[in-house]
Write a structure and sequence with these properties.
This protein is an alpha/beta fold and 607 residues long. 35% of the residues lie in helices and 23% in strands. It has 19 helices and 26 strands. Strand 20, helix 12 and strand 21 form a beta-alpha-beta unit. The chain is globular, with a radius of gyration of 25 Å. The structure holds fructose -6-phosphate. The site of fructose -6-phosphate has 16 residues, from helix 9 and helix 16.
């Protein structure tokens, strides 16, 4: 989604802005631009296409020390030069960059056009630039404040003005924005990755807050001009974590990082021998959670798949009714939230618009709301009453991989933590935690045989339709495997609970069609073996994910991808890894840009 970077300080702003925009590229964009305050003039350059196109328009000798930059992911209005940000007011003295969507833009536009303002783009942002200009009387902060009172919608904005060099005015209402604090300089960004090369000290803006930023001062206020005081916080991520560090793609880096990422996620939280789980984030609400009558887990995409595994874990370990809902459905369908309902939002970025809105809706209806989030200080983390961070470092690859395994691991820890306070015996908890502690090493074992997944990808990447089947805990993994394949290799893939096949989808199976079946040891093994037989009878090619040592499966399948043995509830943490690798290799073989899949953005902050 769109990205914001800003700089005000002593150094030339342009290289800092371009470096920031490059670090925001992973979020997806289709145009980019910068505005520099140069003496008493604004110099704006913008273009559709990649950053390299923009760079050709720039004069890197520019010495301006104040500027803002933007990457736009078109939602309303085509990705053209004119629609790219920054947007100028009619006088060319005020420039605005904006993430989000102004809902009353068309009414504002009509009003401003009647007053003689001429528009050059199709964007909502230009209406905001004109409105700020309409209110400007020598005080940019005041003009922005007045303009924001007239708009509705979600935004994170940064504004510069030729008449006030050395000043950036920023505001947030529903889009992430943070201020980086340096020595004699400040940065502004929608994502910590954009500024981490310069500082790890940040101040997070909250919704309804504004900032006037100069090289040596930041003043924070509410939209109603009430002063706000905030602590400077430290970003935990290192620069190395947001760089490729020798890998060809972030997706491969993040798949490979999973053993270490999960070690971090589990560190200090589990005690295998005692069967104990320590979750500091839940301490204050443990009583409420153990008394909960119902859990609703919500999220989107991969996070929703992790939540679905969570549903199975919660019902098995806590024995409390649990449902998993797409956040996009939950937020609009008048859900029943009664006393004792706990809603848990699962989200890597903590910024997904539907998940955030579902959470806000649940909160308004009186539910206790929790977050399972990766990005510290993100909107969902701030909206929730309590929660647990994933602690897996930044996920840059558009296809979510390490976040999925960490989300499942966190939900497993939560299930065990609450289960122990209800029905789970110390022995059962100890067995569960002991198995969980082995997962990072077991994923490392799977990664050592990554070439097996590559062989499968080589054999079948030319096939345009794949099926993924699973049962029980591995049903969500089938959904996740199919999603990974389609989103980065553009192969049509469908994930199903294996038994559903005979209710319709079996009609799709034809000679040679790749059917990935998760057939690990456990209560579902015989049933899934029957499903394999049904597929084979119709000519489908079976790619099985099976438990090490299972020789029988090799007689039924064309390819077997072995994973180490673990208890059934934790199998998704292992079975998903070969599927991530198949998707990665299939995408490469088909010439797809793994880290920048078409039509996709990293964090979906619009509806
Ligand atoms: C798929 C993927 C998406 C995200 C979804 C939710 O690989 O990345 O489906 O899982 O957009 O994102 P978060 O977890 O940031 O809320």
């Amino acid at each position: 989604m769109c990205g914001i970077i800003g700089y005000v300080g002593q150094r030339p702003a342009l290289p800092i802005l371009i470096d920031g925009l490059r670090r925001l590229e992973y979020r997806g964009y289709d145009s980019a631009g910068v505005a520099l305050v140069d003496g008493d003039k604004l110099r704006v350059s913008k273009s559709a296409g990649r950053l390299s196109v923009l760079e050709q328009l720039l004069d890197f000798k520019a010495t301006s020390t104040t500027g803002v930059g933007h990457t736009r992911w078109a939602t309303h209005g085509a990705p053209t030069d004119a629609n790219a940000h920054p947007h100028l007011d009619a006088t060319g003295r005020i420039a605005v960059i904006h993430n989000g969507q102004i809902e009353n833009a068309s009414a504002l536009r009509t009003y401003l056009e009647r007053q003689g303002f001429v528009f050059r783009s199709e964007t909502d942002t230009e209406a905001l630039a004109q409105l700020i200009s309409r209110f400007y009387q020598g005080n940019l902060e005041q003009a922005v404040r007045q303009a924001l009172h007239e708009i509705s919608g979600a935004y994170a904005i940064a504004v510069v003005c030729a008449d006030e060099p050395g000043v950036i005015v920023a505001a947030r209402n529903g889009g992430p924005l943070l201020i980086g604090v340096g020595k004699g300089e400040h940065l502004l960004a929608s994502d910590a990755a954009a500024i981490l090369a310069h500082t790890s000290q940040v101040v997070y803006l909250s919704d309804g807050e504004m900032a006037r930023i100069t090289a040596d001062h930041v003043s924070l206020t509410t939209l109603d001009a009430m002063p706000v005081t905030k602590d400077v916080e430290e970003i935990e991520w290192s620069l190395d974590e947001i760089e490729l560090s020798g890998y060809d793609h972030f997706m491969l880096k993040e798949i490979t990082e999973q053993p270490a990422a999960l070690e971090n996620c589990l560190r200090g939280r589990i005690e295998p021998r005692a069967g104990a789980v320590h979750l500091g984030g839940l301490v204050d609400c443990t009583r409420e959670l153990t008394r909960a009558k119902r859990f609703i887990l919500t999220g989107c995409g991969t996070a929703w798949h992790a939540a679905l595994v969570g549903e199975y874990l919660f019902e098995e370990l806590i024995r409390t009714p649990t449902e998993t809902e797409y956040a996009s459905e939950f937020r609009y369908r008048n859900p029943v939230i009664d006393d004792g309902t706990v809603v848990i939002a699962v989200s890597q970025s903590g910024e997904t618009a539907d998940t955030l809105a579902a959470l806000v809706e649940a909160k308004q209806r009186g539910a206790a709301v929790l977050g399972v989030v990766n990005v510290v200080g993100s909107s969902i983390a701030r909206e929730t009453d309590a929660g647990i961070y994933l602690h897996v470092g930044p996920e840059i690859g558009v296809a979510s991989t390490k976040a999925f395994t960490a989300q499942v691991a966190v939900l497993a820890m939560m299930a065990c933590y609450l289960g122990r306070r209800k029905h789970l015996s110390p022995a059962a908890a100890s067995q569960f935690i002991t198995a969980l502690a082995q997962i990072p090493k077991q994923i490392a074992d799977i990664l050592e045989r990554a070439d097996q997944a590559k062989i499968v990808a080589e054999r079948y990447c030319g096939m345009e339709n794949w099926l993924y089947l699973g049962r029980g805990y591995n049903y969500p993994v089938a959904l996740e495997g199919a999603l990974k394949l389609k989103e980065i290799s553009y192969i049509h893939a469908e994930g199903l609970p294996a038994a559903e096949m005979k209710h319709g989808p079996i009609a799709l199976i034809h000679e040679g069609m790749p059917v990935v079946v998760i057939a690990t040891a456990g209560s579902q093994y015989d049933r899934i073996s029957n499903n394999i037989a049904q597929v084979r009878a119709r000519g489908g090619s079976i790619i099985a994910v099976a438990t090490e040592g299972d020789r029988e499966i090799a007689k039924l399948a064309e390819h077997v991808l072995y994973v180490p043995d673990t208890i059934e509830p934790l199998q998704p943490l292992l079975t998903v890894v070969p599927l991530q690798l198949i998707a990665y290799h299939a995408a490469l073989l088909r010439g797809c840009n793994v880290d920048k899949p078409r039509n996709l953005a990293k964090s979906v902050t619009v509806e």
